[in-house]
Amino acid sequence: QVQVVESGGGLVQAGGSLRLSCTTSGLSFWFASMAWFRQAPGKDREGVSCINWKGASTYYADSVKGRFTISRDNAKNTLYLQMNSLKPEDTAMYYCAAALGLPGTSSRVEDYKYWGQGTQVTVSS
Question: What angle do CA 74, 96, 17 make, to 5 degrees?
Answer without folding.
Answer: 90
